[in-house]
Amino acid sequence: MGSVAQSMSDEMQPVEESGDGQQAAREIVEMFAEEAGEQLDTLEQVLLGIEQDCSDATLNEAFRAMHSVKGNAGCLGLPDIEAVAHRAEDILDGLRKHVFPPNQGLISAVLASVDAIRGCLGDLDRGGTIPDRDSIVQRLQAELATANPRAAVPRLGELLVASGAVDPSAVEAIVDFQRRPLGQLLVNLGLVEEKTIEATLDEQRRIAEGTQGVPAAPAAAPAGTPGAGTDEPRATKLEASFVRVDTGKLDSLLNQVGELISAVSAVVQSPEVAALEADRFNAAASQLQRVTSGLHDAAMAMRMVPMSGVVNKLNRVVRDLSIKLGKRVEFETVGESTEVDKSVLEGIADPLVHIVRNALDHGIESAERRLAAGKPIQGTLRFHARHQGGEVWISVTDDGGGIDPARLRAKAEALGWLTPEQSISESALLQFIFRPGFSTAEKVTGVSGRGVGMDVVRHNIEALRGRVELSSELGKGTTISIRLPLTLAIIDVMLVRAGGCLFGLPVLSLRESVSIGQEAVTPLPDGSRIIRIRDRILPVIGLDTIFGLGSGHEPSAGLVAIVEHGTRVCGLRVDQLLGQRQIVIKPLDQYISDIRGVSGCAVLGSGEICLILDIRQVLEVHVEQDRREAA
Q: Could you read off the pLDDT of 38-49 as tens digits, one per residue?
């Protein structure tokens, strides 16, 4: 036995590859990583639903996904992935054959193997090593033995090692030899020449390049059916249904389309052109604007992706955390097919995970408390996403105990943010949750309690030019609502002019615009101004004062745009309102990127530069100016 293992070990020497062969190998590895990632995502989604839906179709789908990963890993010579996938496949095979029913331990073990395989897909160039492979395999074996004691019978190799007839290294050498790609085995054994294998691989790659992603051609169609008798198989018509494109190329395309729209607007809206009375030119210009607008919409649609990927991630978080906390929670989702820009989706994933974790830890009560309150023992967490008025609205609602205003106030007073005699509305009290260092958790746990998280959630959402709101009813539950733009490249603004400069007020932050008279303005001793609008007192800020554009006089009568950020509402004094526009926003150049109060800029059709205001920073600058003047 030892001599056989030694001969096999001698034959398992790496075969030198040419540059073309190495490139082909890299392409195959990248293709495996991509396909394995998709298969693991599908497998994870199926596994999370197996405990509720244990149909044969579901179990077969899970088995096929893991079987494909194992088989492809074996062909590429990735022993760690193959070993973990093989053990997970044993469990899925037993489930689909109804040898044993699914349970929490089995599903958790297979999910752990999915995480381990996914974690090493980015390191396939170095063999796809799984550091804790042995512990994962042992966990899978233990769960399988518990569910099916007959599966615990030792294998032949284990019996031979235990009896002392064979060394463990000899068994490992044979197993490793068997895991090697078939073509390389045939070459090492002298059964096939290497050039024959290379020719076969070249032929397979040539076939794959022409039919990659195309389903197998169906059996010959009967005469008279669509596609029968044609030279081109019907399957080849699906060849170009999907094309993978790097996101950088899409960004470049979108940027060029935005430049095209600006250039078209500059030509069409030019004063010299507007003075011409040319009907044919006007008709052609209108058609050009429609075409460029359609081109822009098409370019934007390429970056739109459904939220199902994030929802699947949240589903896993709910399952794992509910098991850890010992709570029974049903996760309901509505609108997971809602599409958003890819960059928006990437930015919202982590805040949503934190919101869901908070809902499970703080919101939904334990089984004992729910029964005492007359609630079902199983809590409900609901995720709802939809398009609304050119925005994406997302809400996460739990049916837990809600937020106790009394506890919020006690915590705020303990931190020195409120005095006992100070009055505050309940909605304003809820905003303390978004402050750094604020937490109502009774003790620090591995999930929450340190007072970090919700402030980061708000910051990240606002960085996406979105808004987050919180509402709660004691004993009934809590809802966190998020409003986001469909894309970060397009923004709806109200164009205003102040101090001779053009500004864009984000429509998300704009409440209304009003014209006030001198009688509505009240000067204060510190030199600032307040205005009265419908029995409400608001501070008023001059944009020319904020940016040093005017004479420095405080604003008086005129046009005022009422804006809000969080719970803060104020008026911005402007000279002109020029109407609402949808513009392509661009970042500021590096040498002026530190200007506070401005988040970006845009080039209008007239050629003017419009500065997009950051309302949060504008309010902060105003407060700092007031403090300096008071000092």
A: 888 888 888 888
